[in-house]
Write a structure and sequence with these properties.
Layout: E1 2-8, E2 11-17, H1 25-31, H2 52-64, E3 82-83, E4 86-87, H3 95-107, E5 124-129, E6 138-148, H4 163-166, E7 176-177, E8 180-184, E9 190-194, E10 206-207, E11 210-218, H5 233-241, H6 260-276, E12 293-294, E13 322-325, E14 328-332, E15 338-340, E16 343-351, E17 358-368, E18 373-374, H7 376-380, E19 389-401, E20 404-411, E21 416-419, E22 422-428, E23 434-445, E24 447-457, E25 463-468
Parallel strand pairs: 8-11
Antiparallel strand pairs: 1-2, 3-4, 5-6, 6-11, 7-10, 8-9, 12-25, 13-14, 14-16, 15-16, 16-24, 17-18, 17-23, 17-25, 19-20, 19-24, 21-22, 22-23
C-alpha cells in the first residue's frame, strides 16, 4: 500500500494505491472472512468472498461509506475509488452503506435525496452533550433509524444477505435483531461497527424483519478542558485508537481522566433506547444469544492505567454482558474485572441452573481480528506468530454443585485440578500457551461456578475475545 500522486492538466490528484502482488487469492480470501452458517449448518460465503476485487470493493464501502461519493462531505474533498480502474458509483453501493452515509449527512443537518427519503422512514438525530469537560457541551451527534427488509433488498428478487455480514459482525438471531452502531471522526473513516458491548448494551432488540442502524459523529473541533496539553476532542479519541484504528477507548493522564468515550456510549444508548422502548416489555422479541461472544473492548484496560490494581466503574443496570447457550450461560462479570500492570483478572461465571446437568463444557479466549476470530493454535502454528496473551492462572469458586451450596475454591496447578469428581484443565496450544478452560466429569452435574481467570497481556493492540466452545 502506498500513496499515489498524478498530474492531469495542471491539477494534482492524491490518494492511496493498494498493490497486491504474487498471492494465493483463495487463501487470502479464506483468511479474511468470518464463518457464517446457513439454516442447514453449512458455510455460507457471500459474493465478496470469491474474488479479491469484490472484497476490496466491499471493504472500501464498509470503512469509507461516510466519504465515498458523498458531495455533502463537510471537511473538504470527498472520496472516489477505483478497483482495477473500475470506479465504485453511488448506485453500486450496498443499501447498508448508503444508509450509513445518509445517517452521517443527517448528523450535519444535511437532508439530501437519499435512501432514507422514502415515505414512512423516520430518521432520528440527537446531540450528545457533556458538561464542564469541553469548551462547548456538544461532543457529537448520534443519527439512527429503524428499517425493514425491503429497503435492504433482502427479499426477492434481490435476496441480499442480512446486514451483519456486510459489516463483518456476528449474525443475528432468527427471532430478534441486535442494533448496529458505528462511529467516526473527521477523516470520515468508520472506526468500528458494534452490535455487542458498551455501544449497544441497553438498546432494545428489534423484530426479525427490522434493523436498527446508528452512527455517532464526533464534534471534532471542540476543545478539551482540564488537560495538561491543549487538545481537541478529535485528538483525544485519535490518541486512543492506537495503530490499528480499531476502536475508541478512554485513557488517563495523571489525575486527568474525563472518560469521554464511556460517556458517549451512555449517551448513545440513552438516545436510541428512549426512542425504541415505547413498545410494551412483553411485546419485545425474546432471544437466546446462541454461540455469541464478548469483544475485547469490554476486557482490555484503558491506556495509562498505571501499575496499581484498579476496578472499572460498575456498569449501568441492565448492561451486564453474557455469552449464553440454551439452558445455561457463561457470563463475564464486567463490573468485577480488575487490572494490575500488564495483567487482568476476568470473572467468568457459569450457572447451569439446578435442572440442567452437563458432563463437558469449555470456553476459550481467542484473538479478535478485523476479519474473524482467530484461535491461538492457528495464530502460533499456521501464522507463526507469538501469542499476544495467555492464561497465567485460574482460581475456581464453587458456589453450587448438584443443588448443594458450597463455599470452596480450587486453584488450577500444573494445568489441572479436581473437585468432587469434576475435572478442570487448561486448554493449551502445542507450544504450551494456555488459552481456555475445559470441564470434564464422568457423570452429569448441575453447577454454579466462578472462574477467576488471570490473563497476561503481552501486546495491547490485539484484543482477547471470549468464546464458548461449540461442543458444549
Amino acid at each position: 500500500m502506498g500513496s499515489a500522486k498524478t498530474e492531469h492538466k495542471g491539477i494534482y490528484q492524491t490518494g492511496t494505491t493498494i498493490i497486491i502482488p504474487f498471492i494465493d487469492r483463495q487463501e487470502l480470501l479464506s483468511n479474511n472472512r468470518r464463518e457464517y452458517l446457513d439454516s442447514r449448518n453449512e458455510e455460507m460465503i457471500p459474493y465478496w468472498g470469491h474474488k479479491v476485487e469484490d472484497f476490496l470493493k466491499l471493504a472500501v464501502q464498509r470503512w469509507y461509506a461516510p466519504r465515498l461519493n458523498n458531495s455533502s462531505y463537510p471537511f473538504g474533498t470527498y472520496l472516489r475509488a477505483r478497483i482495477n480502474h473500475v470506479g465504485i458509483a453511488s448506485r453500486d453501493m450496498e443499501p447498508e452503506f448508503q444508509i450509513v452515509q445518509a445517517l452521517y449527512n443527517r448528523a450535519f443537518y444535511v437532508d439530501d435525496e437519499d435512501i432514507l427519503g422514502e415515505d414512512g422512514i423516520e430518521v432520528h438525530k440527537e446531540d450528545i452533550n457533556l458538561r464542564k469537560t469541553l469548551e462547548s457541551q456538544k461532543i457529537g451527534s448520534i443519527s439512527f433509524v429503524k428499517v425493514g427488509r425491503d429497503l435492504l433488498r433482502m427479499n426477492a428478487p434481490d435476496n441480499k444477505p442480512e446486514p451483519y455480514l456486510y459489516m463483518n459482525l456476528d449474525t443475528g438471531d432468527t427471532e430478534a435483531n441486535r442494533p448496529m452502531i458505528c462511529y467516526t471522526r473527521k477523516p470520515g473513516m468508520i472506526v468500528s461497527y458494534e452490535n455487542m458491548g458498551s455501544w449497544v448494551a441497553n438498546i432494545p432488540l428489534s423484530a426479525s424483519d427490522e434493523y436498527i442502524f446508528g452512527i455517532f459523529v464526533l464534534n471534532t473541533e471542540n476543545m478539551v478542558k482540564g488537560s495538561r496539553i491543549p487538545m481537541s476532542i478529535e485528538e483525544y479519541v485519535r490518541k486512543s485508537e492506537m495503530a490499528d484504528h480499531a476502536s475508541w477507548g478512554d485513557w488517563s493522564e495523571g489525575s486527568f481522566n474525563p472518560r469521554f468515550v464511556s460517556k458517549v456510549q451512555t449517551g448513545v444508548n440513552k438516545a436510541i433506547s428512549k426512542e425504541y422502548k415505547a413498545a410494551e416489555e412483553d411485546d419485545q422479541p425474546k432471544t437466546s444469544s446462541g454461540l455469541s461472544k464478548l469483544f475485547g473492548d469490554l476486557l482490555l484496560p484503558s491506556e495509562g492505567i498505571g501499575n496499581d490494581p484498579t476496578i472499572p466503574p460498575k456498569p449501568n443496570s441492565g448492561s451486564t454482558n453474557s455469552v449464553q447457550r440454551k439452558g445455561y450461560p457463561f457470563a463475564i462479570e464486567t463490573g468485577k474485572i480488575s487490572y494490575f500492570g500488564d495483567e487482568m483478572t476476568i470473572p467468568v461465571k457459569m450457572n447451569t441452573g439446578d435442572r440442567k446437568k452437563i458432563q463437558h463444557a469449555s470456553f476459550q479466549f481467542q484473538i479478535d481480528s478485523e476479519a474473524r476470530k482467530i484461535e491461538l493454535p492457528e495464530w502460533e502454528g499456521k501464522m507463526g506468530l507469538s501469542a499476544p496473551f495467555y492464561i497465567k492462572d485460574c482460581r475456581i469458586g464453587i458456589e453450587k454443585l448438584d443443588g448443594v451450596l458450597h463455599t470452596d475454591s480450587v486453584q488450577i496447578v500444573n494445568g489441572a485440578c479436581t473437585y468432587n469428581m469434576v475435572d478442570f484443565s487448561l486448554i493449551k496450544t502445542k507450544s504450551g500457551t494456555s488459552y481456555g478452560i475445559q470441564i470434564d466429569a464422568d457423570d452429569s452435574h448441575s453447577m454454579s461456578l466462578v472462574f477467576y481467570v488471570t490473563l497476561k497481556l503481552k501486546e495491547r493492540d490485539l484484543k482477547p475475545l471470549f468464546y464458548v466452545e461449540k461442543g458444549v
